[in-house]
Amino acid sequence: MLVFLAGLLCFFALGRGYVAHGQDAKGTRFVCTSIPIGADPSCPLPPIPMQSTSPQEDDLRNTVMQLRETILQQKETIVNQRDTIKELTGKLTRCESASESTTLDAKHNQGSWRKDFSKTNGKDTMGDLPRDPIETIDHLSRTMQSLKDRLENLEQQQMRANMSGVAFPNELRDLLQRRLGDLENQLLNKVSELEDEKSILYNETAAHRHRTDTALNTLLERIHELEKGNSGFKSPEDFKVSLPLRTNYLYGRIKKSLPEMYAFTVCMWLKSSTTRGIGAPFSYGVPGQANEIVLIEWGDNPIELLINDKVAQLPLSVSDGRWHHICITWTTRDGFWEAYQDGEKLGSGENLAPWHPIKPGGVIILGQEQDTVGGRFDATQAFVGEMTQFNIWDRVLKAQDVMSMANCSSNMPGNVIPWVDNNVDVFGGATKWALEMCEDRLYDS
Question: Where is the composition biased (Basic and acidic residues) (predicted)?
Answer without folding.
Answer: 105-131
